[in-house]
Write a structure and sequence with these properties.
4 helices
């Protein structure tokens, strides 16, 4: 097995599980904002502040995982974290919309 490939894979996985420097309160604030904006982008009726926070935080995990393959997501600040959470939230709401339309 190629050791360089293994080292690169470990590096990518480590980046995808690293949190940024915004802290827990920052994730809640950013999650709420990202969930709200994503629901407006996806033409949602609004989910309430608690669901917006959940959507935003789960979206941040999805977006952070996807972007970690191309960028060092742990090095980002508030704006990068918000954009990452927004991207992941839009993807999450799109997937939920597709699943609901099939049911």
């Amino acid at each position: 097995m190629d050791t360089a490939l293994v080292a690169e894979s470990v590096d990518i996985l480590a980046r995808s599980t690293t949190t940024t420097s915004v802290g827990l309160i920052g994730y809640i604030i950013i999650g709420g904002l990202a969930g709200f904006v994503a629901s407006k982008i996806m033409k949602g009726a609004g989910s309430g502040i608690l669901m917006n926070i959940v959507i935003g935080i789960v979206g941040a995990l999805i977006g952070g995982f996807l972007l970690s393959f191309a960028f060092d997501t742990a090095g980002g600040g508030w704006i990068f974290t918000f954009l990452t959470a927004l991207l992941g939230s839009v993807i999450l709401l799109w997937i939920v919309g597709k699943v609901r339309s099939r049911a």
